[in-house]
Design goal:
The complex is a heterodimer of chains A (140) and B (379). Chain A contains 4 helices and 7 strands. With 140 residues, chain A is an alpha/beta fold. A 5-stranded mixed β-sheet of chain A has the order 1-2-5-4-3. Chain A has a two-stranded parallel ribbon with strand order 6-7. Chain B has 16 helices and 9 strands. The chains are: A alpha/beta (140), B alpha+beta (379).
Chain lengths: 140, 379
């Protein structure tokens, strides 16, 4: 599907206008940037789709969290992204977990909690993961 | 070794027990906590993370050109898939084209790697039910594939053969003929395995109705690939994603239809793994004769010093399921973010469902039939 068509389809389906669109490589579709608080609302509309991966990358003081989504028949491939600001080194940004929508999401979220210290509210293993990786710090 | 925590029986006679993390029954270090209801296991909890190595971080610490050997270590049994995916993702960022011959060579070695990987899983299933003859036959057959890897690149496990823009060397003289002979041999040997085990009523009875995982459950856990196909799915990324050059050129042309069975127990996984092995072998036999001439590597790849700033997301159908990668480059020599997501973590998360209600003696059988690798899940 054409990226412009996909964007209008996204806006129509979710009711959110992305403030930016970008492209993730040549093998994947467009990436829609939305506010952090709108992530769960947007992904809820794509509950029947496949969640390919949740990943993140740090750009200076910002962590970009990206959700890769594809349709069952693989005709629609796109990503939804939000930015989290890290105010200081010990900052623990919070996000809403999408594990109620996809059971596998908790595995991706645990990895992001480990790598970037993001706390996913609603993740059944969030507190466990937090304790697991905070424990060495507490010992110091 | 089984460690019984408490011998006190409650009103339903459940005995809390623990197995692992290091035991010869498991494919890798993993801990199972469960309640024993007589001989049956209930309320299973899985603990993993005993072999975490931080490979994603290591990939970000080294230059992108020297990171390929680290990728091999994520899953040694399916290392060609990781190498290929790593290079495809970098090529996407660099906007580098791969010569058609190199795409075909990558496809052939990946299919050979799929065959050795499936043969290993089959041999482990066979061994876990005491069919030692099947284990020895399948291991012997797998060794032939490892010999071919050694002839190709000098290594049996950690290959370092695929590179950005193609492959390091063209296939050597006589290698394709040896591969053809190996494929013919494997087809005959698999027929032996079918007559010895697959059609053996005792063996079938031992495998059937164990480790049941329905398609809905598998999909819920995020499982795709051979385990999902053994539960009735017909999805195969090799055929479904024509945009990927690796998948598009070599496999889609030959119209390979994935085998689909409607059962979802260990026997169904055995039959699907064996059928996919045959499918890959037959495909390789045809692909050898269709290998196009040309360059084995893009000549521009050697002159590239710094990657472009950008990001890419790629997928590949590995022997265990769909493998994904997400890389971000900020234009420096090392990657800003290198993140793989392997199928093993989803297979491990399905263990409580697959094992629930099975007998204690079937625990290794079910675990081996899922075909996960701890090194891939923990990384």
């Amino acid at each position: 599907m054409d990226p412009r068509q996909m964007r209008s389809s996204f806006e129509k389906k979710v009711g959110i206008e992305p403030f930016e669109s970008s492209r993730i490589g040549s093998q994947w579709g467009p990436c829609f940037w939305i506010e952090r608080g709108q992530i769960y609302k947007a992904l809820k509309e794509y509950h029947g789709y496949l969640l390919e991966q949740i990943s993140a990358a740090q750009m200076e003081d910002t962590v970009l969290v990206t959700y890769f989504i594809s349709s069952e028949d693989q005709t629609e491939k796109f990503a939804i992204r939000c930015a989290l600001e890290l105010l200081h080194a010990q900052a623990q940004p919070k996000m809403v977990s999408v594990s109620p929508l996809w059971a596998k999401a908790k595995l991706f979220e645990n990895e992001l909690a480990r790598d970037f210290g993001i706390f996913f509210e609603g993740n059944p293993e969030a507190n466990q993961t937090l304790l697991k990786y905070r424990e060495p710090l507490l010992r110091k | 070794m089984i460690q019984t925590q408490s011998t006190t029986k409650n009103d339903v006679d459940l005995i809390p027990s623990r197995l692992g993390p290091v035991t010869r029954f498991f494919p890798g270090p993993l801990q199972l906590e469960f309640d024993l209801d007589g001989e049956r296991v209930r309320n299973i909890k899985v603990q993993r993370g005993f072999s975490f190595r931080g490979i994603d971080k290591k990939l970000q610490m080294h230059s992108w050109k020297s990171a390929i050997p680290y990728v091999d270590r994520i899953d040694s049994d399916a290392a060609f898939f990781y190498e290929t995916l790593f290079c495809e993702t970098l090529e996407d960022i660099l906007k580098l084209e791969v010569p058609v011959r190199a795409q075909w060579i990558r496809a052939i070695i990946c299919e050979l790697n799929r065959v050795t990987c499936h043969l290993f899983t089959l041999s482990q299933i066979s061994s876990s039910v005491g069919a030692e003859a099947g284990f020895h036959f399948l291991t012997r057959d797998r060794e032939g594939g490892l010999d071919l890897f050694e002839l190709l690149c000098g290594a049996r496990y950690h290959f370092n053969y695929v590179t950005v823009g193609g492959v390091i060397e063209d296939v050597s003289d006589g290698w394709l003929e040896r591969l053809d002979a190996y494929c013919s041999e494997i087809l005959e040997r698999l027929e032996e395995i079918h007559s010895l085990l697959t059609r053996n009523p005792v063996f079938r009875d031992r495998l059937s109705d164990r480790g049941i995982l329905t398609l809905d459950e598998a999909t819920g856990y995020g499982i795709r690939g051979v385990i999902s196909r053994s539960a009735g799915s017909s999805k195969d990324l090799r055929l479904d994603s024509p945009s990927s050059p690796f998948i598009q050129v070599p496999l889609a042309k030959l119209k390979v239809v994935p085998p689909v069975s409607q059962q979802s127990d260990v026997l169904a996984r055995w039959e699907t793994l064996a059928a996919e092995t045959e499918q890959s072998v037959e495909w390789m036999k045809r692909a050898i004769h269709s290998l196009p001439a040309g360059d084995f590597v893009n000549s521009k790849s050697k002159s590239i010093k710094l990657p472009n700033a950008g990001e890419a997301f790629c997928r590949i159908e590995s022997p265990r399921g769909v493998l994904t990668s997400y890389f971000v480059s900020d234009g420096t020599e090392s990657l800003n973010r290198a993140h793989f997501s392997g199928p093993s973590q989803f297979l491990i998360s399905s263990i409580p469902t697959a094992l629930d209600g099975n007998e204690m003696r079937d625990v290794p059988l079910v675990l081996y039939s899922l075909g996960y690798r701890i090194s891939e899940a923990d990384r």
